[in-house]
UniProtKB/TrEMBL annotation:
Organism: Camellia sinensis (Tea plant)
Leader sequence residues: 1-31
Residues annotated as domain Gnk2-homologous: 36-139, 144-241
Pfam families for the chain: Stress-antifung
Domain of life: Eukaryota
PANTHER family named among the record's database cross-references: ANTIFUNGAL PROTEIN GINKBILOBIN-2-LIKE, PLASMODESMATA-LOCATED PROTEIN 2
Top-level taxonomy: Eukaryota, Viridiplantae, Streptophyta, Embryophyta, Tracheophyta
Family matches, as InterPro entries: Cell2Cell_Antifungal, GNK2, GNK2_sf
Name of the protein this chain belongs to: Gnk2-homologous domain-containing protein
């Protein structure tokens, strides 16, 4: 059996290691929810001419109204200013975000707009969980079916059945948009769609169907895709091992088919912490046994 001095040294080392593990900072992936990840930015080329600061004041008021409403609803549209200085704007959160998550998402957008766009006559910034836009009076409008952004990820390596699964899931999505937000899955494909909050049911269905057709035509056999039109967006993801069961408390589920990496660090930390805890108990028992043995020797 080791000497008490060696046991004390080993015990001190384990206590130090355990204390450091217990106070390890939360990794960035935990601190920044996936729904605040930037998807795209759209900035008008023309900057605001604002020598008197009237536009800045109206824009600040607009942002304040949008942020305050984001704790109560997942869509809000308003205007500030008057005449030529009128600015209209809106925000929308993904339909499965809680009020708290919606507020946290939307509150980041004015800062991002300023950082990414400056102060143009119109701007739109989309995060995974929400977006915000504003337009100064007179800004040229675009069709609600115009595509703003798309991304196609990965290529199908799961065999010929993938495209049939995807198309079946997307077909169900196109038929289920009565409430403006809908998610569903078919076998290993998960799909999500959402329309702008003030879009009528018929226009919403047409917009989503157009986005579905765009994803099929332009993303081909990609195993995941996001397609954003002006008034709606859709996304789909393929999970070779089956669509994971969604947690009702998590707004970040299904954001990526390869989202298991964030849990690896947690698992390692739990295992390592458990091992240190067991080691600590063993050392204590050894130390106590050594003391008892010395006591018996006396």
């Amino acid at each position: 059996m080791g000497s008490p001095t060696k046991l004390y040294s080993l015990l001190s080392l384990l206590l130090l290691l355990f204390a450091n593990l217990d106070h390890t900072p939360i990794p960035p992936a935990e601190a920044a929810p996936a729904y605040t990840t930037l998807v795209y930015k759209g900035c008008a080329k023309q900057a605001l001419s604002d020598p008197t600061g009237v536009y800045s004041q109206a824009l600040s008021s607009l942002f304040g109204s949008l942020i305050s409403q984001s704790s109560k609803a997942n869509f809000f549209k308003t205007t500030t200013g008057s005449g030529q200085t009128t600015i209209s704007g809106l925000f929308q959160c993904r339909g499965d975000l809680s009020n708290v998550d919606c507020y946290n998402c939307v509150s980041k957008l004015p800062i991002l707009i300023d950082k990414l766009c400056g102060q143009p006559t119109a701007a739109r910034v989309q995060l995974l969980g929400c977006y915000m836009l504003y337009e100064v009076a007179g800004f040229a409008q675009i069709s609600g079916l115009d595509m703003i952004y798309k991304t196609c990820s990965g290529k199908n390596d799961g065999g010929s059945g993938f495209e049939q699964m995807r198309d079946t899931a997307l077909s169900a999505l196109g038929n289920g948009m009565s409430n403006g937000f809908y998610t569903t899955s078919y076998q290993s494909v998960y799909v999500l769609g959402q329309c702008e909050g003030d879009l009528g049911t018929s226009d919403c269905a047409n917009c989503v169907k157009s986005a579905v057709q765009r994803s099929q035509a332009e993303c081909g056999s990609s195993i995941s895709a996001q397609v954003y039109l002006d008034k709606c967006f859709i996304s789909y993801s393929y999970y070779p091992n089956g669509v994971p069961r969604r947690s009702s408390s998590s707004a970040d589920s299904f954001s990526s088919p390869s989202g298991s990496g964030q849990n690896t660090g947690k698992t390692v930390a739990i295992i390592l912490g458990g091992a240190v805890g067991v080691g600590f108990v063993v050392i204590c028992l050894m130390f106590a046994r050594n003391l008892l043995k010395k006591h018996d020797d006396f």
